Sequence to fold (565 residues):
Amino acid sequence: MEPNDQKKTGRPKRQPSSRSQNGQRRSNQKGRQQNNASQQNGERKSTVSRGAAVRAQKRTQMDAQRVANQYLPAQDNGKRANFIDDSPRLKIIGLGGMDGGGSKNMMLVEYMDDAIVIDAGNDLSVDLPGINYGIADTSYMETIRHKLRAYVITHGHLDHIGGLPHIVPKFPAPIYGSNFTIGRVEEIFSNFGLPMPEGFQLQTVMMNENTHERLKIGAFYVELVRVTHSIPGSTIVVVDTPVGRIINTGDFRFDPNPLDHERTDMERLKELGDEGVLALLSESTTVERMGRTPSESTIEQSFIDIMEQAPGRIFVGVFSTNMNRIQMIVNAAVHHGHKVAIDGRSMVSTLEMAVRHGFMKIPKGTFVPIASVPAMTNDKVVIICTGSQGEPSSALQRMANGEHRHIKLKEQDTVILSSTPIPESGNDALIGQMVDDLVKKQVHVFEHRNHDLDKVGPLHVSGHASQDEYAEMIQLTKPKFFIPIYGAYRVKQRHIELAIEQGIPRANTVNALNGEVIALTPEKMEIIGEVPSGTILVDQTGAIVSNVVVKDRVLLAEEGLVAVV
Fold:
């Protein structure tokens, strides 16, 4: 003790006991340990949280990249090798439509210094932010652009012609097709949203599918054969090559009684088979369906019956290119004294072209503008419109949502959906939601799938063959080799089994994927390599969208955006 302390207190300061000192020491140590533990736990929690966030962000980026890459596999440098084969054998390369339900159908036929493209479609099922559709990757065409002689088109559906405005200006060549098909091609070029390259001129050649006209195109002779489908002017493409004859069926069915009386030219198919066919490339869309597809004529009475019973306006959702179906609906409306209005830009455009070329017969005074329908007092009107697949922004979808410019649905209205969901499209949910919205408005809805419940006849028949017709195509053409096209892999494999039942040796069949190169000689067929394949994405302006942009859009759609101001 210091002397000064004694003076201040007058007595010595009391010392704590050893027990008190030890207790305080233990207490302080415990407190420090708890504080340290707390800090360590906090640091551990903070570290785990940051790590989880980083991993979650990485997973999101990987998911976005995976979504983008499934549509753009050609961006992988490992798949961009040039394929060069100058041997004297025929090469067939499916750039689209070989492994995904038959969308963006595009096939390249190449022999030595000549090549033609059969179809060049788009894929409307692409579900990505801001993307309108996809087209086939054309990287390989860069290496053979000097060989390209023509585009030959089977028919005018967008999954067979929708890619032409993007591809043809880049790789110019004349486009060959039937009268109606060329009309459709010229229509989509005139309605295309982007300007064409300077100096580009669209060249089209109409071929007569009824006279067995054969045109020489490079090393090939090309012929179109009439076939029934759900659009006028549908054809089978016959290509005579130095190696042998190949036949691409396009989409088809064997309708014995079509409304326009344009039956499939079975006699010519048999003649071609008797003369000899090296390879048949047959569409496979509905090969899993047994029997035969019913004739279009079987549904005509159903429209007449519904129109007779319906108390108010009648709306019919139908594919915009199905001119026979539209003609049938117009005929039923005229039979009951109804006026007809057309709604949907694509339908109006195609209908005008069909009437102009004589593919439809419309009695004078039948049509009325869609804008005049609300003012009609007797409700004796049939509105034929787009939207049978529940497509966003289609005419019927806008009516169901209450967003249509002219039409407000009423309780007495009747809606007929003259369609079924497109195979492999995933449209079932869209159609279901649209029907729910229509029923909520107290509108009576007739769907083909429920026509028995509604006690009416069928409202739709497919534009594609069923199993017996696919078998008959093989029997008529008698090919040496068989290649199923336009379908998912499992569906095409089913088609191969059907071909084997018709006598085709299994060794003479091949189930090729997009990009795989099939080589043909008179004696042998084999896959000899692969070229770049995939999907090029197109936005709503018609512009090509890069992989990086797609990834960023997916990330923004899932994660959002924070702006600090």
